[in-house]
Amino acid sequence: MILEKYLEKRRSIIDKALDKYLESADVMPKTIHEAMRYSIFAGGHRMRPLLLIATYEMLRGRRDIRSIRRILPAACAMEMIHTASLIHDDLPSIDNSDERRGRASCHKKYGNAIAILAGDALITKSIETIMEINNKNQSLECLKLLINSASTRGMIGGQVIEIITSQKKRVKLHMVRDIHLKKTGALLKGAIQMGCVLNDADEQTINSFGDFALNLGLAYQVIDDILDSIGADEVLHKHAGEDVRNRKVTYPILLGVEESKKRASKLLDDAENTIKYISGNEVLLEFIETIRDRIP
Predict the structure, then answer these.
(1) pLDDT value at 246 more than 70
(2) pLDDT of residue 4
(3) 98 touches 39 (CB < 8 A)
(4) Which residues, 6 or more positions from 243, have their beta carbon under 8 angstroms from its beta carbon?
(5) DSSP of 207-252
(6) pLDDT tens, 72-117?
(7) Which of 39, 245, 249, 265 is spaced 20 to 30 Å from 227 by Cα?
(8) Which whole number is the average pLDDT over 50-62?
(9) 258-296: pLDDT as tens digits
(10) What gap in Å lies between CA 78 and CA 123, rounded to an integer?
């Protein structure tokens, strides 16, 4: 198993870079910068930036800590966007979650108004950060991916559809799939395709890795649905049962737990098939298996 050591080293580098790119909590106005840092450093797994780095290193053909420093603006930008989505998801008007990763949600600590603005500020900060990539062509291509993954075609669109479907009496599976592909899959797709762009990969490779990311993201979210439905608080690192409380329709509700497990496993198989013949794929293959291990 190489994954644990690999992730530990790179997660530390990502955290140091995030600390560098974010304003200090002492910079005026202090409250907003403190709230941004509170949410960014709340114990996240850094899955999106780590997948970006793993894809970059695999396509580059070697793992070298020094070589990933040039792509850290892209990695940090994706984590900022993701954290912004979590802050907004937790708000009383959306999921009404008092806790995130075992501590108070941003709005519980700083109030609703500051939480909304902290999320907004992280989105604008992500755009500023990604422009730090030295290669301007790559910077602009990564910016396009960032904006697309966070837009109404991606993350924000998924949040909106989820709100609308929670008010419907009948929701079909394709609607739930669309939510997951946009809310979770789009950011993973953006991150992994950035790893391709930063290697000057061709269009076919970028598209292929986009499919890989969407399968991975959908599988991850289906498994989260299952864990929430069976009350697996310790795995989710939050109180389970939120989907029911927020009247969300999920894969287990529509298909049952066992069929949902089969769907998640098939999605992971499809993701694995995309990369299994690529040299240096060990990290991403182990990453797939860690997600598979979450299936109860």
Answers:
(1) no
(2) 82
(3) no
(4) 225, 228, 229, 250, 253
(5) HHHHHHHHHHHHHHHHHHHHHHHHT-HHHHTS-TTHHHHTT---HH
(6) 999 999 999 999 999 999 999 988 888 888 899 999 999 999 999 9
(7) 39
(8) 93
(9) 999 999 999 999 999 999 888 889 899 999 999 999 998
(10) 9
Residue with tokens 């694995």: 272
